[in-house]
Amino acid sequence: MGSTVSQASLPQDFDALRALILDRRQLLPKRLAQIAAYALGNPDEIAFGTAASIAQSAGVQPSTLIRFAQHLGFDGFTSLQSVFRERLRERQGSYEERLSSLRGDTSGLSKNRVILNGFLTAASQSIQTISRSVEDDVLERAVEVLAQAETIYLIARRRSYPISAYMAYAFGKLKIRNQLIESTAGIDPEILSFATPQDAAIAISFSPYASATVEHAAALAARSVPVVAITDSAFSPLAQSASVWFEAAEGDFSGFRSLSGTMALAMALTVSVAERRRSL
To answer: What SUPFAM superfamilies does UniProt report for this protein, alphabetically (predicted)?
Structure first.
């Protein structure tokens, strides 16, 4: 597939590369879109994985990585990979330093303290990442949508559920009408059927995405109910249904992902909405 990006205009840093991928996401063939979603969601793995390991994790053939790189204007996958590697050099030093920081120095420390340090480091990294990724105009639009809503519907499942549950608690304390979607009777679609364009929803899900959350968000969007989404990639199905969406890429320790950055974002939205309502 020929590239429409000249060598002179090739993205030189990760932010420019991400912008280019997002600009083209609707035009990418299925397999290239699959790689794009994986790359934006797992930039560290792209930076230091081999073509074979990355292809296996993304569920594609190694040749697809080369096609993806060439589609973006690079001469091969190695050239594309260098942009991901530079991102880490600029932000966090060497890969070995990051691994050491994440796993903790075990000398003189109990196993429990090493685990605690690992999770605290992952939480700190998550908060820093989300702080950089949230744009002021997106935050402003989300607060405006939610502040205007008559009822805010909160939708999340599995590991995302604690975020929506705490938002429901905080909205209640702030006297903001909300509905947490958690029916044990299995009537969530019926509850959501009461939502109108004068309401709004907050939908939260991360890969692998909860099918119920995705379906509820799509159904609300189809009825012109504004959806504010918190998810982990522009290729998330939630982003496609959202009026406004936030990218919350959480760090992890030993395969367990943090929710620290997402919780901070959720509470900022909750309190900002309350403040905005006071001025309406």
So the answer is: Homeodomain-like, SIS domain
The pTM of this model reads: 0.72
Of 14, 57, 10, 8, which is closest to residue 34 (Cα–Cα)?
57
Q: Is 266 exposed, middle or buried (0-12, 13-18, 19+ CB in 10 A)?
A: buried
Encode pLDDT of 135-150 as tens digits: 999 999 999 999 999 9
- CA–CA distance, 117 with 120 (Å, rounded to integer): 5
| Residues carrying CATH 3.40.50.10490, the chain | 132-279
Query: Looking at the chain, which residues constitute the CATH 1.10.10.10 domain(s)?
Result: 14-92
Contacts of 60-69 with CB under 8 Å at 24 or more apart are 60/31, 60/34, 60/35, 64/31, 64/32, 64/34, 64/35, 65/35, 67/1, 67/31, 67/32, 68/32, 68/35, 68/36, 68/39
Owner of token pair 């290239």: 32
Total residue length of the chain: 280
Cα 134 to Cα 67: distance, rounded to the nearest angstrom: 31
The sign one gets for the Cα dihedral 77, 79, 82, 83 is negative
Between CA 252 and CA 122 the distance in angstroms is 5
Give the span between the Cα atoms of 40 and 34, in whole angstroms: 10
3-class secondary structure, 166: helix
Q: Could you confirm whether domain 14-92 is CATH 1.10.8.50?
A: no
pLDDT at 270 over 90: yes
Superfamily name with CATH number, domain 132-279? Glucose-6-phosphate isomerase like protein; domain 1 (3.40.50.10490)
CA distances, 61 to each of 64, 65, 68, 199 (Å): 5, 7, 11, 44
Cβ(92)–Cβ(98) below 8 Å: yes
Strand order in the sheet with 178-180: 178-180, 152-156, 200-204, 227-231, 244-247
